[in-house]
Amino acid sequence: MAKNIKTEYNDLGLGTKTSSGSFRSLNKDGTFNVKKTNVPFLERINFFHSLITMPWLHFFGLIVSGYLIANILFAFIYLIIGVEHLTGINALSVSGKFIEAFFFSAQTITTLGYGRVAPVGILANCIAAIESLLGLLAFALATGLLYGRFSKPSGRIKYSSCAVLAPYQDINAFMFRVVNPQNNQLLEVEVNVSFSMKKENSELRDFYSLELERNKIVFFPYMWTIVHPINEASPLFKLKEAEMLARNAEFIVMMKAFDESFSQTVYSRSSYKASEIKWGEKFVYLVKWEEEGVSVDVGKIDETEKVKLN
Question: Is 90 exceeded by the pLDDT of residue 176?
Answer without folding.
Answer: yes
